[in-house]
Amino acid sequence: MHKQSLILQQKAPKNINELDQAFKLIDQKLDAPSSQLLLMKTRYISIDPIMRVWISGAKTYLPALQQNDIIHAFTLSSPVDNQNDIYFGPAGLQTHFLYDKTNKKKQLIKVPRQMLQILQKCELQNSNLLTIILNGLPAYYGLVDFCKIQKGQRVVISAAAGATGLFCIQLAISMQCDVIGFTGDIEKIKFLQNQFPTLRIINYKLDDWDKQIENNSVDCYFDNVGEYMLEKMIEKMRKNGKIALCGSMGSSSNYNERQGLSNMNQIINKRLKLKGITFNQELNKIQAAFDYLFQQFQQKKLRIFQEEYNQLNDTPKALKRLFKGDNIGKIIINLDNQTKL
Amino acid sequence: MHKQSLILQQKAPKNINELDQAFKLIDQKLDAPSSQLLLMKTRYISIDPIMRVWISGAKTYLPALQQNDIIHAFTLSSPVDNQNDIYFGPAGLQTHFLYDKTNKKKQLIKVPRQMLQILQKCELQNSNLLTIILNGLPAYYGLVDFCKIQKGQRVVISAAAGATGLFCIQLAISMQCDVIGFTGDIEKIKFLQNQFPTLRIINYKLDDWDKQIENNSVDCYFDNVGEYMLEKMIEKMRKNGKIALCGSMGSSSNYNERQGLSNMNQIINKRLKLKGITFNQELNKIQAAFDYLFQQFQQKKLRIFQEEYNQLNDTPKALKRLFKGDNIGKIIINLDNQTKL
């Protein structure tokens, strides 16, 4: 029995065009599982901005990658002999793996069957669950749980056409906020205008982008990029405003060249509240988050925008698209249509 | 009738030793007040770190100072003919002024008589009210209202021997927290050790200061300095920890040379919550704050540490002491003992 994996051949190249050099596809023999181990098949892989950090070898909430390690990725997977059970977790860029349920380090979480049933009721695909977990939850935690956005408030969202940004836009529009989205691409502007006629879109690549928002006028900023844009947005915030921090890669392609934040004093003067947001927020909040999101889907206030690839080896290509900002919405590697073992 | 004022002669000199050059004492004739105006006498003046920003000419929540403007300062003042009424507000570095009660821009707030009575019951001086408002309230808002510190939690406080720091230390000790204070001066270390035997003190001027706190071990950080120390403390924070931001001047003597904050990504990964804290937090919270603080005074869990000067013209000397970090606790210019008009 064999599996394919993508391993780290070379740490984060500076030039995105050379990204392929970081990855190496290998074919490995997989031993037959002992009674304690489940043979798992990876079904869907999430392509996320944080992968840039992982392939740089930095330590995050996951262990730092060494050369030849299987590269981290969040996936949905199932036991080969029971496709009805779905597990979520950082199982990595591999088609199959042996899972020791008793090893808590692997941190796979079995998705409750009830949740899968609700998904189907909402006419959502199983692959959508990955997007809901990794991007819908942060959007909810940031805007609904932390910022507590209200009708009429001005809400600004950066990387508006990204996977998390699209959730944010829809949640804020559904709440009847005055929603402003940042994007830097003509195609994305057209797409957003078509999909969300009430959304105000600002092209942040224009010189005067920040002039288009009055200082001290924003109640809530959902920040997917950090750095320079965060600094500018601090000027735009109202007193007692809230900033959900959900991304810090900014526009720099190199993880080690990030800029600092130099206007902390305004955070004090304006009594701003900031919170770091990740999908794995306080566990006791997950149920409320899913309830809220599923209700939005049922009321047709939420749609998922996904772009799919079908081979493990598509990952470098998909990642390059993500890092260049060419994608709209979520990128998923869908391995569910591959030949079975 | 005459008054004395300190006006801005020259914007923020880089060298603290040349600070006197920023100030000029002038003597002005004061017109007899019309019926709408109250002739006010300044009784106590607060000497605060933010004065460094004001004399730099920067715009804060108060208007930017121009040359020859009376320099901003928070004061307690009384009508000359009614010393029982006390007003709080940014009346500036002047011995007397005409106050138009109908002009909301001046923003003086009449201190409720009930509060003055409670002060006296706690055996506190009227001048202490200025310290409670400007330093006790931020300590309360940061640690009690925002961080919600609990028994056993690790709480770290920078500028521990400063006016706000001393309130923070006492509130956290009273809550039976594991309290760590930063200071950079041998005299202050001795003072803190004598006053608070359970306090752990770290001299941040030692090379290994940050090694004395394990990474990911701090529940709450009350930040009075920002910059480099804030950056280091972000490493020390536990997941879901809270940081009260109450000062951003750091160790740099020049307002324009402040450093940026470069590890925002850790704020995200750890899901930290940050909030800018000022004494003039949400107005509806003031009563609860005073109730809490007065109870602490009555239970002898709070004491006020004040250093007093007696002439308006002592301000540059007092400020230099503050900026050099030579003071312990609050610095007040007490004009209440001056000859009456």
TrEMBL record, chains A, B:
Residue ranges of every copy of the Alcohol dehydrogenase-like C-terminal domain listed in the record: 164-290
This protein's record includes keyword Oxidoreductase: yes
Originating organism: Paramecium tetraurelia
Oxidoreductase recorded as keyword: yes
Name of the featured protein: Enoyl reductase (ER) domain-containing protein
SUPFAM superfamilies named in the record: GroES-like, NAD(P)-binding Rossmann-fold domains
Pfam families: ADH_N_2 (PF16884), ADH_zinc_N (PF00107)
Gene3D superfamilies referenced in this protein's UniProt entry, alphabetically: Medium-chain alcohol dehydrogenases, catalytic domain, NAD(P)-binding Rossmann-like Domain
UniProt keyword annotations, A-Z: Oxidoreductase
Source organism superkingdom: Eukaryota
